[in-house]
Protein 1
Amino acid sequence: MIQLNATFDLQQDVISSILKKEETARATTDVSDPRILHVERDGGVLYCWRGATGTTRIGKYDPHSKHNKLLYTFDKQVCVSSCSLNKEETLLAVSLTQKHRQEELLRPVSKCLTLLIEIHPINNTKVLKAVDCRVRVQFLHPDSVQTSVLESHLLLITEDGYVDQFHIMLARHEGYRVVMLNPDRLAKDRVAEDFSWVQWDSQNQRLYFLTSRERNMECVQFHPQRNCETVFELPLELPCNPFSSMSFVHLGFDHYYEDGREEGISLVVFTDKTERSMCVCYSHPVYSRKEVRYTIAFVHKGCSKTFTVALDQEALCSSTNLQPLFFHTGHYVVVFLAGHFLHLLNTRQQDLLCYSFFLSGSDACLGEVGGSYVGGTHGGSSLLELQSGRMYTPTISSAHLMDFLHAERPEAQRLATLQCMLVYKGAEPEVERQVIDWICGDVLSFHSFDQIQEFILASLYRITHQHSLCLDMLLPYSSVFQKKELPVALTMIPGVKCTPALLPQPLFKGKSSEKRKASHQRHLEENTKKVLSMVDTCRLDTSVVPLLFQEEDPQQKGLIGTMVDKLREHLNRHLPQLGKKRTDALVVNYVAKLLELVHHMLELLWHKYNLGPQVLCLKQQGSPEEWSVFHVMLRILEATKGLGLPLPPGYNSLLAVLGLKCVCRHSFLQFVDHSLLQLTEPFVSRLMKDLDNSDENEALKFSILKRLPEPMLERVCHLWDHPVSSACISRNYVSQTLQNVQIHQNQDKIMGFGLEDPEHSSLWPDFLPLSYLTKVLSDLEKKALNPFEEQENVDARFVEETALKQTLIELRLEDKT
């Protein structure tokens, strides 16, 4: 799982180079006892060796230029326990371990001598401290700042539990010589005291230390302007008396003390500015050789997890040290106990155990290093094998991940593998292609998770995380949380007990925030236009997938606009500090990337199965390749529907075309009735035009027309050349015309025009069938007998009053009584 890439080899990169140079100068050469001392912020490796004439030399290896540089030579053999070089490479701080000789037993000699040496050129040497305790030295390497004053700042960290910062003023003589000003009066400040554990963070120029009494972890930030400040304090629930002696972390290697490991627990802090994460990892005292306990405190998440791992008793015979090794790669913290287990914890998604790897047996190996002790360097992102003098950069192997994905492994491991490949390795096009190929080729679904949903959410999470910070806690990264009850397989690791807990809130110094009102955007059409304008137009111009992004598709466009609106509202509520413009850009880009992901999957499918424009021909039966694509597209539809995500406009039309070609007509209509397929207007229009009026096709068209909503039916009915279609058109036209006639009649009555007035009557429309029907009815009405003509002795006065009464009623001038 973990692949170790060699970045430095003491024998090949240093010793061979030294031997070549010395062979050029003289015939006899001797390089003995080479040792790595420290790794500075720029990656430069400080080392020492003993020469043939009894000298001790200190050099630096530059990993960028691959060159070695001699820094200083002691004219006798000394034991270098700590070493640091300033950024300008003009000063060298060295801490020497002094051992009593037989002839010096009666003379008082300090155990540790700390020196400050001018090396540009070699000139003055000053003794900074001579004490009977271990001392580590570390120059500050601040970010570049323009200053007219030459100065360096040096930290002295002592075993007695205090840190002093020396401010060293420099001067340039003769244009090139750099010397110390007033070396006898160097200014110094007390940075911290009364601690039992200390760690140096070279990348962020921070010092972490653990106070002896309250067991609080404090962090001191060093700034270029000579000042430093305590950034925060974090209470930790550590075991009692965790350290029997002072513990130095990432402050170089004292080979004269650390040949045997320091007693006590292992404690290390990992920070990542890009990930905005901070993890405090520590082990627990080993009271029984049956189990090992360790805790990972996710400070950026406000929680911790304590793991208790049962050990394989057969493997205990070869294990002498049961304190695990902690290091990190990417956004994974790795816990390794040689011969027992390899635990990779996801620092982004620490909620469930299924997003992390726990490997044992033959899988729990660490590259070619095997079971030898490996120490963390350079902020924990590099590993050092002390015995061979090799340094490695650990990475997660893509080949191993693909093997895990295809192998018959527990679903939790395969989910962790899929998440790792998509989020951690997903930026590699080949890895993404392999994942899509696996999803499309794996017909069997998993009980615990949906592969397509995981692909969409994890890929969107990775893309958005690259473009903006502070969104990992607001955007979903997995579909597992949509389940009401999580499967046991995703929440437990066999043989491992996990105890979660909430962390006490760290006390930050001088931090404030402002709240802004969230702005709500309701114009869904504008949202959709912005999203579609962000979609990669270059890729769409060369796309082989038909119909996508080529239709109006009001349903999907409405979903796109709604998602933009809701996501904008969500970010404005939780991250008001981003501002309106940045939030709008993030939201639009997020939804656009979602649509591009789906389009990218279909592009790979089209190329994989070599599909062409014949896909849209409804007269042909679907091929096996088209059936495979239809199956995958159906899974994509289910996955996005389960998450409430939109699809590219035209997706449902293309899916309906493939569905009609690949399944029988009865099954197709069942898919429609169960909302798995949608009868979009472009699809129905294509069906009405392409299929002839055979008995089978006619029955299909009738079945589809019955399932259409009335507005769509009126729009597509005229596309079918059939008597039923013509009758439908006629009925609709007559109904609409009669409605118009009624409206005009009411208007004519109000205006005072009679029905027989040919200039104002509305009973003579332009539609010929209706005009003919109206004329026939009018002629029949004229031929009908008038009942008043055959009757004599008619009361004219009564008829006149009745007619007047009816007129008043018709004109609504008098109520009917």
Protein 2
Amino acid sequence: MEGPETEPLTASTGSIQGNSHAKIAAAQELFPEEDDEDILLQAVVFVEDAIHYRSIHHRVDRRSLRLYRLYYSNWVQWGMYAAISVLLVLAFFERPSSLSYTSDTQTLFINRNGTNQTNQWDPPCGVTESIELFCLLIFLADFVVKTYLVGKEKFLKSPWLIAYVLILLVSLLDWMATLGVLCIVPVPGTSHYRSVLRIRRFFRPFFLLQNSSLMKKTVNCIKRTLPEIFAVLVLQFLHVYFFTIVGMLLFSEPVGSTAGGNNSSWVPVDPGATGVSDPNFHSLWNAFITLLVLLTTANNPDVTMTAYSHNRLYAVYFILFLAIGLYLLFNMMTAVIYNQFRGYLQSSLQGSFFRRRVAVRAAFEVLSQQNKEVELSTNSGGDCVRVSTIYHVIEKVSLPKSAERRITEKLGRDMFGTYNAAQFQAVFDLLDLDYQVHHRPPLPAFRHSWLQFLQKMIAHRYFEYLCCAVALSNILTVSILLTIEYDQLNATNSDLELLNFVFVVYYLVEQCLKFVLLGWRYYRIRKTYIFDALVTFGLVIVEVMTLVEYGSPFSGLDRKDEVETVIELWDLIRITNILIMFRLLRVISLFKTMSLVLSTLLDLIKNMRAFAGILVVIYYFFAILGIEIFSGVTNYETFRTVNVTCGSYQQLNYWANNFNDFASALVVLWDVMVVNNWMVFLFAYKDALSTGWAQLFFIVWWLVSVVVYVNCFIALVLENFITKWDKSNAIKEEQEDEGRSRTLSFTEVRVESVHHLFRSGLTEPKEEELLEEIRKHQHLEIKV
């Protein structure tokens, strides 16, 4: 949104109009900086602590505060994340390396032709270890600085800092221990060295966790939710176990005979027999795993067919099992996780909100101490701070631009005044503003009546409906032509090429009319207009390339074979129609629910850093664990003849799905997380290691990734959507009560962070609590 025009500041009016930078400059001119530098620096740091929900309990002398600001500067923090990213990415390059064109062990075995050579490239010995040591030393320096800033007492009270130093020590010791044997034991017949167990790789995700306060809060909330999850899981376990025993009793009576005594080949006999023998229920463990997989519907209806084919009444058993386990207990678990996780997260964010309030109040207290020397006071006799002093603080603080603009606009109305604690707090409440009102700029004025009529027509909402109708008709005609004339689409005079040309010309004319008649200021605040302009620009470029390469689509001649072209006509047609499909998204803006769903999705992408980080952590840990347990056990040359059946790992050619390197391990974990056909991995790795305990790895992964993580993510999605929906309705009702015209302004609801999701449910701390927390500060010497 374009800011208001800047006008000169006059001392007589005492008001400032203009953008934030002009206001700050004017404040400096009117009020030369006479504030104590140390006091200002303390206030600046406390305000920055409030912005980022940080604790104020750190050293406050000038040297420490400068180090503190340097430590939390953007480039240092980005450097930390870069070091963490490099350390995590090393897993793709370390032995066993993921640098190969495929992970398919069958393809690799065939291509080797018995030479025992692989396409895998391992970095020179010691390269990745040197990079890892450099990253660990950066983390060690980070720990030293962080511990110095918070002090010894705070360090001893922080479990995360204690864990930080312990994991650093273990990682460095493990690095030194494995370095001595890393390049000693070669793989026979190759130039590679055997991989050794590196315990420190399991701890790498911790460095990502400890560097994000929101991620740590989320982990703590998940940990506190686990008891309630465990209670429902126990109920689910009893449900599966009950049906396991019932299934073994129902499906244990044989109705046929075996050929040659071989139980693996079943020959059914009398159809009128009273029982059925289902091999899935011949052992307790196998029956339990079968029903557990059925609970995810991955093996439905395959696992039911043996019994159901014998007697249709057996379907009741499986229907009851899924109805209770899948539709009742699983949905109950989702409800429990949503309720408990949301409650714990809100409680945790209440602590963050309290820290923000404490930090703002601490900034006010240190500034008011300075003002006491010149005996400034409000009408009520309380402590206060000059507005000019707040300007000096705002100038030095790293604020988001939108928040800086709102704050300086508020301060500009009270240039010569003073603020008490409540007013000071109200200034920084603007940081929590989760919506923004966009005032529509006036339309350009035209003298000619026909231009005024055309402008009025294009600005009307019915014109937007017409544009969407044209886009829909474009999509429908493209779909019809793709269906009935697919084989003729590569000709230069095809109907699809003609259709594309006509619609692209229409889109270009539409955008030009909007831009000229509505004006740039009006045009730029409509996101749908900008989106349409970008898509139309791409369409015009592709259509111009088509005209240059193949000539006019109205020529009636097929010139495809007569000219030398740089790009194929079909490629141009495909690009054009893909861009046309994107224009269909503009329809979303016409439907409130669709628009709200899309905006919720965009907000989730912005606010998913904590959840995405936790997903990286669990994927990384389980991938490393899977490599250590299952690396090489499903290689083609050794596993191709082991228990091959219909639907098995070998029969489905799952050879690329293995734990032979980090990248392929991530893919296997994703496949299991999706749960489709995950029973193939359960039984394949059980056969490979000849033990049912191997299946526990995949069961635990399913519980962690699907049952816990996905349900917590669902809770975040629900909360985000409900918050935006309620806020949108509340703002709409408020505007209707005020009689504000939708043509003059529109309100954009924003969810800038997870904190904004729960802002309405957070309670304001009492003033006594804020002052008590400030008094506990070991390094702050002020009277409150």
Protein 3
Amino acid sequence: MEIADPMLAEMGKNLKEAMKMLEDSQRRTEEENGKKLVSGDIPGPLQGSGQDMVSILQLVQNLMHGDEDEEPQSPRIQNIGEQGHMALLGHSLGAYISTLDKEKLRKLTTRILSDTTLWLCRIFRYENGCAYFHEEEREGLAKICRLAIHSRYEDFVVDGFNVLYNKKPVIYLSAAARPGLGQYLCNQLGLPFPCLCRVPCNTMFGSQHQMDVAFLEKLIKDDVERGRLPLLLVANAGTAAVGHTDKIGRLKELCEQYGIWLHVEGVNLATLALGYVSSSVLAATKCDSMTMTPGPWLGLPAVPAVTLYKHDDPALTLVAGLTSNKPADKLRALPLWLSLQYLGLDGIVERIKHACQLSQRLQESLKKVNYIKILVEDELSSPVVVFRFFQELPGSDPVFKAVPAPNMTPSAVGRERHSCDALNRWLGEQLKQLVPASGLTVMDLEADGTCVRFSPLMTAAVLGTRGEDVDQLVACIQSKLPVLSCTLQLREEFKQEVEGTAGLLYVDDPNWPGIGVVRYEHANDDKSTLKSDPEGEKIHAGLVKKLNELESDLTFKIGPEYKSMKSCLYVGMASDDIDVAELVETIAATAREIEENSRLLENMTEVVRKGIQEAQVELQKANEERLLEEGVLRQIPVVGSVLNWFSPVQALQKGRTFNLTAGCLESTEPIYVYKAQGAGVTPPPTPSGTRTKQRLPGQKPFKRSLRGSDALSETSSVSHIEDLEKVEHLSGGPEQMTLEASSTEGHPGAPSPRHADQTEALKKGALRPEVDHPQVEGLESLR
């Protein structure tokens, strides 16, 4: 089917080509990098005769994706489907329609507005309603408040604020409402903040995220007695945080009793388009107004929000700003008008139904996963799933109980709460990276702490979330649970070990999800100040480098202390059972060694400088003594040569060596006399202050030994090591064993007499093969 108007056909073609170019991930390279501006006053793109469409779109693409040298901080825009193209076409088409003559424009905009309003009211079961389309989601509620004020205050148009001053209006908001909503309404309406009334949620019965209806009725009665006017109540059909729905049926009865305007908003309003709707959400169809966001629900970009309302006075709706005679205001519905026709009723219902099925799929899967708590109401139709990790530590109360046990101190409860929040924050960030199509968000709840929210109604249509993505999300959660559980169990043990180790200070950082944070207190550490410590930073930097070189499963980072500027060592998550005692001991010993080495290097400069000066003085004295011994005649060039030829001087080579350990000069005469400089004497082993645990081949550092078979593992590992040593001795031959037996005599690391006897026996066995030695045959088999 061809389009009669060639302008519309060309517009659709240009939009398709533009979207294809903007969605293409491969960008063209700039052809003229060295082009200079002709004039310094006019920017480059405005010079000459202008740019073509391709160049302009290329510039827009570069601005959206950033420079190639910069690292991508956020993922690029997703590929928009055909329904998204229709929504974008609506904005271009609106600009084109605005050029029509006034009569055609009036008829067309009226038709678009009436059709879109009728379709939305029928789809979402809101009969005989009017629609207001707005870009800002909260703008519709502000207009509804103006309409309520004009309806309740008849003289407001004439007297203005004086009418409100004599009888102050009250707007009731739930404690679970969106943050900043009350402040926005007061700013838009010019009302003082005392006109807002915050209604608490249930504390004893029902959901902790639902409005307390009994307490609301008490607040309304108190306001009426004080001479105030209860004006408007904002209820939630799916709170912004966890998606819980207020008891809208009871709230409607209460509003009718006191003449209060009832406004409903929330993501659960999308379920009104489905065949089965819960009773609490279905009650929203009887409210005075509701605000919906069909753009995220259906995956439509740049589509306005819609506020449906019921009112019989067109004059008041015009004064409140809900209706307008301007065609441009009516054209706001054009993108949604095009998109709804493209999707059809089946497509709209299918997208909303698919999102609800994803939520139910995740909820049912998480019920089978241990240590995962789901914060969702009992209704099966809730399209929002909020969950968090929790675990009861052995011998203690549950970590995530809302009401702590009486024997737990407030500080202990707060510490456990912060630790759990850090772990859940880490879990949420990991899941967002592993499954980006899930659209997860991490949020902080006042009563429950940090949680992870899955709201496919707001993200699935845009990100293209499928059932396979939900299954992958559950698998990722199960793979991260051992890490979370192990880390949580090792935290208290790590704290006790650090507090019992000299030189280490445990730092309680509630935002760190790892095992813990520790700071090494060096000798010059000023504990009374919170300023940065350069010496401590140097020690901790070296400590992190050495610990990461051990190639353990732990990660170590350096950063400033919580609420301080001093450097600390941050120990990461643990994926296996860790020997915390060995870990803490290694940290302390390594930090102590780094501190001692740094002190040695600092003192080295002064010691070496003094040694050089002393060596110069002694060498000068040695030269003077040599002149006295040889005489003056030997210093004359010709005479000295003849004299040295007849009577050579047998002079010893004298020099000075500098002992860094003792910090003093020593003579080199013993070295040249005894010729011991190149003897290759093996130095004694360097003593180590760190108690290192023997590990099996391939075993990583800080791994805890098996508790159930300690004796067996130690015996088997020791015997295995001894067998390997015996095989190495046999493979070396009799000559090597003879040299080793002679060289180890009197050496600090010489073997015991028993080992010497075994070596001698092995040597005789090697020289006399006719003697039967079963032990040697066994070792040969091992080799």
